[in-house]
């Protein structure tokens, strides 16, 4: 009958395998082969194209942010395998299939350079844990649910959803962050060339902080995110050389919204603030250029423009969503989506 052969890396658009003399198997036998491969372990390596993308905004500069593209692609369902591949050297696209409960509670899984960590469909989740990066370069994190590390036990902790220290070129996109122990997203210690896009930040106190440095060198883009009933740091952008915030939707913010802190140079465009306290604030030394924003049922500070801001279009191309359309657009598109990776 010939010799059956197949590879653990294959084009997912093909629905057959071959005998050595090119006899095609029917679809049900192909599926049987795949199921047998899955049965032998929680990691399945394959070659696909639907889950790969390059970053926009400031993350597209400095050589670009491509994550693990061009490397090995693996699907993981356990913490052991996630830790193995996320911390490995070399390029990996790591697809998280379903919920992975992280132990001990609040542990931040180390992510090394040249990695993509992406959820499959809408079920990819890091439950009661997060991700930690230190000195890494070229990392993409997309399409994941991250959080539930807050025990409400009154104990001070540093359990972040994602903590990135001194990282260059990172793109965080289409994630859902909620109920963290400390910050949902902390970009610290000169983390630069970052883009944070299409995420949901929900029901939290210290939400999204950028800074923890005296240097004024970092550059970042923050767009089309939904800040939903969070308190402070939405985000707090401290000592950024350039930060571009556009088309975000802030709703039910109880302390302050976008904050240009320290010596930050901020451009804020077409952001929709609704039921937000102190929607736009700045320190005296910060530079702010805000335009096209909407303030609906807001109270408190709306900072005036000051200083000479930068023009994002001199660095990268982007298209502004009309401000009136931002709430509908962002609520329909932010967070994990099957269209991102399935």
Automatic annotation (TrEMBL):
Keywords on record: Carbohydrate metabolism, Lyase, Polysaccharide degradation, Secreted, Signal
Positions of the Pectate lyase domain: 69-279
Gene Ontology CC annotations of this record: extracellular region
Principal subcellular localization: secreted
Locations listed in the record: Secreted
Signal peptide: none
Pfam families: Pectate_lyase_4 (PF00544)
Family, similarity comment: Belongs to the polysaccharide lyase 1 family.
Database matches in PANTHER family: PECTATE LYASE 18-RELATED, PECTATE LYASE 21-RELATED
Protein name as it appears in the record: Pectate lyase pel-34k
């Amino acid at each position: 009958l010939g010799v059956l052969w197949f590879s653990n890396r294959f084009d997912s658009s093909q629905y057959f395998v071959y005998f050595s003399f090119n006899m095609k198997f029917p679809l049900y036998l192909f599926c049987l082969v795949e199921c047998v491969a899955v049965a032998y372990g929680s990691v399945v390596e394959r070659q696909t194209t639907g889950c790969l993308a390059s970053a926009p905004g400031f993350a597209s500069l400095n050589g670009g942010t491509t994550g693990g593209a061009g490397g090995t692609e693996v699907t993981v369902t356990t913490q052991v395998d996630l830790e193995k591949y996320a911390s490995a050297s070399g390029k990996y696209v790591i697809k998280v299939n379903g919920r992975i409960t992280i132990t001990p509670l609040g542990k931040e899984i180390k992510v090394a350079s040249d990695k993509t960590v992406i959820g499959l469909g809408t079920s990819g989740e890091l439950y009661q844990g997060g991700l930690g990066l230190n000195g890494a370069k070229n990392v993409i994190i997309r399409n994941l649910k991250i959080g539930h590390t807050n025990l409400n036990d009154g104990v001070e902790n540093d359990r972040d959803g994602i903590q990135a220290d001194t990282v260059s070129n990172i793109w965080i996109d289409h994630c859902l962050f909620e109920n963290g122990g400390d910050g949902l997203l902390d970009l610290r210690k000169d983390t630069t060339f970052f883009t944070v896009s299409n995420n949901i930040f929900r029901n939290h106190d210290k939400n999204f902080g950028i800074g923890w440095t005296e240097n004024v060198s970092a550059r970042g883009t923050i767009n089309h995110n939904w800040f939903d009933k969070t308190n402070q740091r939405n985000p707090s952008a401290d000592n950024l050389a350039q930060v571009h915030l556009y088309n975000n939707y802030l709703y039910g913010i109880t302390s302050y919204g976008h904050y240009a802190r320290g010596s930050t140079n901020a451009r804020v465009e077409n952001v929709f603030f609704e039921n937000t306290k102190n929607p736009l604030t700045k320190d005296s030394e910060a530079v702010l250029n805000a335009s096209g924003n909407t303030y609906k049922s807001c109270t408190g500070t709306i900072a005036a423009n000051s200083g000479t801001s930068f023009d994002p279009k001199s660095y990268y191309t982007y298209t502004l969503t009309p401000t009136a359309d931002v709430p509908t657009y962002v609520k329909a598109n932010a967070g994990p989506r099957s269209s991102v990776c399935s």
